[in-house]
Design goal:
This protein has helices spanning 2-26, 29-32, 36-54, 60-83, 88-91, 106-111, 116-125, 182-188, 192-201; strands at 96-100, 103-104, 134-139, 145-149, 172-176, 179-180, 210-216, 220-225. By secondary structure, the protein is an alpha+beta fold. The two termini are 46 Å apart.
């Protein structure tokens, strides 16, 4: 019985790190741009690994073989779509214009198995609550909707409002969950005393009292206590 637990633990560990390595190897598009093909690939790969781990008649080498072989198939398909542009529509799908010049393209909706309630849901996710606001709408291959609003409903740009340009800087997290992030201090070329002085200036005894703190160039600190 104990040997079974040891064997299962080893298979789970190796399967976990093998899947992690495969995800890193295949790239971020497996998560951020989940097409129907990617979704099916993820399901099948998880099922293969799950069955291989929990079936006592299948050894560890079958687990690794299933991961490597299926990963090779996915990588091969990705290489094809990168090298042969004509294959992308077949293997990845192609975007569909479901709203053109403010008019819903009913045939495109039917082709993509999308009803009006689902279309309204996708529009609301883009902060659009009426079809009258939309000039063009594109259903992307991963199921999201890209919207071009009509001129009257479009958000004005800083350029339109003649707001002077200024540089934007990313916030650098310095404290999270009461712990100082020393990598951030090193990135900013600052010492811990610089951060502690700011905390004391605000009447905060130390980082353990801080839930979150960050720093932005030209804007300074944002500190929130528990």
């Amino acid at each position: 019985m104990n040997m079974n637990f040891v064997s299962l633990t080893v298979e789970l560990l190796i399967g976990f790190f093998a899947l992690l390595a495969l995800t890193k190897f295949l790239g971020k598009n497996q998560i951020t741009q989940l097409t129907p093909f990617d979704f099916i690939s993820a399901l099948v790969l998880g099922e293969l690994v799950g069955n291989a781990i929990y079936d006592p008649e299948i050894g560890l080498h079958y687990v690794l073989y299933a991961i490597c072989f299926w990963g090779a198939l996915i990588f091969f398909i990705e290489m094809i779509t990168q090298k042969i542009r004509e294959s992308r529509a077949l293997l990845e799908g192609k975007p569909s214009l479901i709203i053109v010049n403010g008019k819903i393209q009913y045939e495109e909706l039917k082709k993509n198995k999308l009803d009006l309630n689902q279309l309204q849901h996708l529009l609301r996710e883009k902060d659009v609550f009426s079809i009258r606001e939309v000039q063009n709408g594109i259903l992307e291959t991963n199921g999201t909707l890209s919207v071009m609003k009509k001129f009257n409903y479009n958000t004005p740009k800083n350029e339109d409002l003649r707001i002077p340009a200024k540089s934007s800087h990313l916030p650098i997290a310095l404290i999270m969950d009461g712990e100082i992030i020393y990598e951030s201090l090193n990135f900013l070329n600052r010492k811990e005393s610089w951060l502690m002085d700011e905390l004391l200036r605000r009447g905060i005894a130390g980082p353990t009292a801080v839930l979150y703190a960050d720093w932005i160039e030209n804007e300074g600190f944002e500190i929130q206590k528990y």
